Amino acid sequence: MEFLRFETVAREGETIGDLAYRRLRADIVNGRLKPLAKLKPDLLRGDYGASVSTLREILSRLAAEGLVTAEGQRGFRVAAISRADLRELADLRILLETTALRRSIAEGDLEWQGAVVAAHYTLSVIEAELMAGNRASVERWVRHDWGFHHATIAACRQEALMQTHASVFDRYARYHMLVLDFRGEGVAQQHRELRDLVLARDADAACALLVDHVQAGMDYVLATGMIPS
To answer: How far apart are CA 145 and CA 182, in angstroms?
Structure first.
């Protein structure tokens, strides 16, 4: 499934550069590399197993994605975070995801519906673990939260839209990983309702719920007080 891009094990036929890119990107999105941390290629090569020139190319690519900032001759840093940036990402996610969701509901077939059900089932199991007190599942929850939302829009058949949404979603998810907390039954209930509305092909209600869902997630992260102004 698409959310496996978060995984950091080598894939068949993958180059050293490809693996280093995925691992470094995942470490930023997952919050292992903190905002504003310096990223020096000569120091990163030991951790990511790629040459200095390859790592410079990877860092430039991540800068284009908004996950890294280039500082001219001073090198690179992990992108900063701010409350304004999170609000902007939430608005952009809503714009892209509601557009994709409407198209997906209109064009999705039975196989797509089955994928939505399967993705939600996996997510619901992890949410049950979290509500039972297993806080170690938060990182898995973020990955499978992506898996579910991606499944709901996977039938939109707009590749550029999907790629842009994936990039924005990851930058939005980074804030949740830095807070590393779970919102509880409320978010699980919204996921169940979204699944049902998608399967019922009620695009208006599904998109309205999605807007509330994203905004609630943003408000929750902001309320922790961990995101600087």
So the answer is: 11
* Among candidate residues 42, 59, 78, the one where a domain is terminated: 78
State whether 94 and 196 are in the same domain: yes
Determine the 3-state secondary structure of 78 from DSSP: strand
Residues ≥6 apart with Cβ < 8 Å to 187:
127, 213, 216, 217
Q: Would you say the C-alpha torsion 28, 93, 63, 37 has a positive or negative sign? A: negative
Q: Residue holding tokens 């557009």?
A: 99
Distance of CA 22 to the CA centre of its chain: 13
pLDDT in tens, 34-76: 999 999 999 999 999 999 999 999 999 999 999 999 987 778 9
The 3-class secondary structure across 212-227, one letter per residue, is HHHHHHHHHHHHCCCC
Judge whether 229 lies within some domain: no
The shares of helix, strand and coil residues in the chain, as percent rounded to the nearest 5, are 70, 5, 25
